[in-house]
Amino acid sequence: MVTIQSQRYFVDVGFGSSGPTHPIPLVHDRVSVNVPPQTVRLNHTNIPDNTSRDSDKLLWVYEHRNADDAPWTPTYCFTETEFLPADFTVMSHHTSTSKTSWFTYKVICTKMLMDPGTEQIVGDVTLFETAIKKRIAGKAEALTTITSEEERIRALEEHLGVKLSEAERTGIQGMVSEVK
């Protein structure tokens, strides 16, 4: 969360293609356009697993939907509790080392696409494992299917602008996520 001129905002720059593309005011049920036609909102509520129904224990639930007539999809939730660097270290350690975290065995990279005329985000290009897809205005297009690690390295640079060092190129060898 950040505060700008006494207004608190939710900001998440690393969630991926369904994540927020701009700061969202910390206001219950205010709908905003994300990457058209996708809309997002924050819902200040309890979640099913909460053991307490006290109003002071509500969570902020980030939700998105890909069309106005589609149901809202709860994506994740958070509290207003302040986190310190040590907290982020522990959370990052789990997601990057636990065998139950898909970040340890899948490769994903997303690049948002901006319309240079309006400076608005209009879509994304996402690599997920062995596929690269481009999505603009809610319409997805498969760009390529990857059959080797060398192809993935080239595709990362060509489609997402990510140039790997030699150490990064060899670092995936022998890993469960290596394309063979």
Automatic annotation (TrEMBL):
Protein family according to the UniProt entry: Belongs to the arylamine N-acetyltransferase family.
Protein name as annotated: Uncharacterized protein
Pfam families named in the record: Acetyltransf_2
Alphabetized GO MF terms: acetyltransferase activity
